[in-house]
């Protein structure tokens, strides 16, 4: 009989719990808690987390290591090859509808593909790919979203200071128009409902579901699809055939939830550009007419933003059958956790781990590093990637075109020092 995965000691388990998992939970896995994000930045929690995981790898080897958590087999993944294998193996033998994710996300998107069982995933995944134009260079709503971004960012040009709160407000107007249509531009109740439901989701199984809020959200989304603005995702939803069991409107809460990450990624990309004037100048010069409508460098800057500070802090999977890892066995039902920033900032293997190096997304280096997974990988890879990069690259380009961009908050990202491992976006501020 094969031995089971190596087990962390009690002391190591406590270190991982306190130094890796607790900071993620405290910052809020589903919606960020601003005060905790600032604290995590002060303490640079991701640096400490990486040191703990490196120690675990040094002592136990590269294979996954099981934590000693009563009632739950949870293994931390420590090797880039294992990340690849785990993500390639969705949904069998590694289901994305993992136990912790199900208990958190049921609060806000009970019909979402990410937490669906096999039958649900079979119809919902291709439908999401279809509506979101997964794998395309640009989303079919590209021209529309360029116009929306231009209209909504116009006001920012004349404002001397750009803060996160202001950016967030403008960003959500853009998202509501692109996702739900022009009539939703000022429907702040939709965004508020999402925030309230996500705050509950942060507490996962400790909190009951608010069916009242979920129903209110569902009614509003249904209304936007029923009377759809044709130039919005709601319009695409209304036109796209759906197999029985798809729950088309039930997919939208995940999109709205995930757009928040896109806003954070774009705002941090602005900070990176502000601190790297040469790249900023090149982004300003970029002409999509020469690039089949794309903005490669603006995109690469957003990708660097999510590499350096992954918005999905941990990728979770559960195995649905026994699996073998270099001669060791993990029982069916074992959870696997990939702490993204551990791999994205692996200074032992990535010479540019702590630098802003957008070229890696253009010259094949990022693709060759199998554990750079800001949008996950494999069959459950983010189907919103095309739309996210389309929208955020246009947004970044519009902001830098229209205004000066000097980073003026407490954080400095220039001067050649290694970039901070944890970055509170809420504290970043720009002057013209
Ligand atoms: C910066 C922005 C975003 C990032 C970094 C991101 C990243 C990710 C990651 C890492 C996953 C896999 C999660 C897991 O396995 O647990 C995922 C899944 C997913 N994302 Fe995104 N996402 C972003 C925005 C979006 C947006 C805006 C949409 C929709 C409009 C979207 C749609 C989805 C869907 C539907 C899934 C579930 C896929 C499945 O279960 O097969 N994402 N995303």
UniProtKB/TrEMBL annotation:
Q: Name one Pfam family in it.
A: p450
Q: Which InterPro entries match?
A: Cyt_P450, Cyt_P450_sf, Cytochrome_P450_monoxygenase
Highest taxon of the lineage: Bacteria
Q: Which GO terms describe its molecular function?
A: heme binding; iron ion binding; monooxygenase activity; oxidoreductase activity, acting on paired donors, with incorporation or reduction of molecular oxygen
Q: Which family does it belong to?
A: Belongs to the cytochrome P450 family.
The name on file for this protein is Cytochrome P450
The source organism is Georgenia soli
């Amino acid at each position: 009989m094969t031995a089971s995965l190596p087990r962390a000691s009690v002391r190591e388990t406590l270190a991982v719990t306190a130094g890796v998992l607790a900071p993620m939970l405290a910052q809020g896995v589903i919606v960020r808690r601003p005060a905790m994000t600032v604290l995590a930045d002060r303490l640079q929690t991701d640096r400490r987390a990486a040191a703990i995981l490196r120690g675990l790898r040094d002592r136990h080897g590269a294979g996954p290591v099981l934590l000693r958590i009563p009632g739950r087999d949870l293994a931390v993944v420590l090797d880039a090859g294992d990340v690849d294998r785990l993500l390639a193996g969705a949904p069998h033998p590694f289901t994305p509808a993992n136990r912790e994710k199900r208990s958190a996300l049921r609060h806000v998107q009970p019909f979402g593909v990410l937490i669906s069982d096999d039958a649900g995933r079979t119809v919902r995944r291709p439908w999401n790919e279809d509506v979101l134009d997964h794998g395309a260079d640009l989303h079919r709503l590209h021209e529309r979203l360029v116009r929306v971004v231009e209209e909504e960012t116009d006001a920012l040009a004349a404002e001397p200071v750009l803060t996160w709160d202001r950016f967030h407000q403008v960003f959500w107007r853009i998202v509501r128009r692109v996702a739900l249509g022009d009539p939703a531009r000022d429907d702040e109740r939709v965004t508020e409902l999402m925030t309230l439901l996500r705050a509950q989701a942060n507490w996962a199984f400790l909190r009951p579901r608010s069916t009242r809020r979920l129903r209110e959200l569902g009614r509003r989304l249904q209304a936007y699809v029923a009377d759809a603005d044709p130039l919005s995702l709601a319009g695409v939803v209304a036109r796209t055939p759906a197999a029985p069991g798809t729950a088309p409107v039930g997919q939208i809460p995940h999109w709205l939830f995930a757009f928040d990450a896109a806003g954070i990624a774009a705002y941090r990309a602005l900070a990176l550009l502000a601190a790297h004037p040469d790249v900023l100048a090149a982004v300003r010069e970029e002409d999509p007419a020469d690039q089949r409508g794309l903005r490669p460098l603006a995109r690469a800057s957003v990708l660097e933003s999510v590499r350096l500070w992954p918005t999905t802090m941990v990728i979770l999977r559960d195995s649905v059958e026994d699996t073998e890892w270099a001669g060791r066995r993990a029982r069916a039902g074992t959870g696997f956790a990939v702490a993204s920033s551990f791999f994205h900032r692996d200074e032992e293997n990535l010479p540019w781990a702590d630098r802003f190096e957008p070229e890696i997304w253009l010259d094949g280096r990022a693709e060759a590093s199998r554990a750079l997974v800001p949008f996950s990988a494999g069959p459950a890879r983010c189907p919103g990637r095309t739309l996210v990069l389309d929208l955020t690259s246009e947004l970044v380009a519009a902001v830098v075109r229209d205004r000066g961009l000097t980073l003026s908050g407490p954080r400095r990202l220039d001067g050649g020092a290694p970039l901070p491992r944890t970055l509170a976006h809420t504290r970043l501020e720009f002057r013209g």
